[in-house]
Automatic annotation (TrEMBL):
This is Peptidase A1 domain-containing protein. GO terms for molecular function: aspartic-type endopeptidase activity. GO terms for cellular component: lysosome. Residues 1-149 form the Peptidase A1 domain. Belongs to the peptidase A1 family.
Amino acid sequence: MASNNSGSGVVGELTICGTDPAHYKGSIEWVPLVAETYWTISVGSVYVRGATITNGTQNAIVDTSTSFIIGPTDAVQKVTFSGAKLCSCLHLLSHFQLQNMFSLSGATKAAEGIYQIECSNISKLPAVIFTLGGHDFTLRGSDYVIQVL
C-alpha cells in the first residue's frame, strides 16, 4: 500500500479476509503453498508453443512486489521468440517480465534481463502457459509486454 500524494487520482484498495468480485471476472483458483517462506508454490509445467520448457514440477515464488518471472537456465534456453527487432517504438518485457526465461531472437538487450522488441511484433509473441494447482493459466504477449514511449 502506498499513499497517493501525486494528485493523479489513482487510488488502491486493500481487502482483508475476503474478495471483492467487482475487481475480477470468473472464479479465483487457490494454489496451496509448498512453503510459507516467500509464498512458495508448485508449478506443474510451463508451456510455450505447445512444448513444455520445464522438467517436471518446480517450486516458484509468488511476489506481488516484483515484476519479474525468472526461470531456470535450461528452461530459458529452450525458447526462442522469432521476429523480434528494434524500432523507434519499443516494448519492454516488464509487468510479467520474462527475465532470464526466454531468448529473444533479434531483440536488443536494454538492461540485464530486459529486451526491446519491435512494436508490431507483440501479436507474434507466443502464449506462455503456467500449470498451477492443476489449472492452466495463459499469458499472451500483451500480458507480459508493456509499451514504453
